[in-house]
Amino acid sequence: MSSPIRIVLVDAQHPGNIGASARAMRNMGLESLVLVRPASHADPEAVARAAGAADLLASARVASTVDEAIGDCGLVLGATARPRAANWRVLDARAAAAAAVTASAARPVAILFGGERAGLSNEEIARCDALLTIPTRGGYGSLNLAQSVQVVCYEIAMAARAPTAEPRAAEPASADEMEAMHAHLERVMRRSGFMHEGNAASLAARVRRLLARARPDGAEVRILRGFLAALERGLPHAD
To answer: Does residue 113 belong to any structural domain of this protein?
Structure first.
């Protein structure tokens, strides 16, 4: 299976987990690995744990920020075991894999996994369109990083074998386009007085979640930004 689905490991600390994740990807036919601020990935333990996927590990792209890793993606999913704020779209691993396979027909897809110590930060979660969870039993929901990657890669492989779903008619907006729209919207809300220091943080977060659920395509983002630009021209200039 060849698919533009990108596994992104953020702040991975243990080289063995990085190597084992590469092996899991190769087992299930995924080839695109991005490492954001890895502690090390050329470590001998990483190569040993890759076991047949050393070339995939060697070709992994290293990025300094999550934005750098996901900028061209049309769908970004964040794997998490922790409860997050309300109003996030939350998918189990099977539903997330199906969504990823469908979306990858139009644009690359990124699936983010946080580091072993703390997982994804709230700021990194805010860059996601939906959250991915792996259902577990009992009160112990935390999986090893490489185990989590293996489960998700397996579900992607199975989803890719399923009958092809109808793709979206329009190409979804990329992560970079969405981020530019968020910045534009925040600027207009501030200039209009609707957003101020007292509500800025909570309002920005809620608007992000709203737009993540809506998942506008590229044309819809351009319409929204055109409207914002027209509205902005009628607002007083900032001091």
So the answer is: yes
pTM of the model: 0.79
Domain holding 207: CATH number? 1.10.8.590
- Non-local (6+) Cβ contacts of 159 within 8 A are 94, 97, 98, 100, 101
Region 101-113: mean pLDDT is 94
The residue range of the domain holding 209 is 175-233
78-99 pLDDT, tens digit each: 999 876 656 788 999 999 999 9
Element (H, E) at 11: none
Q: Last residue of some domain: 100, 132, 161?
A: 161
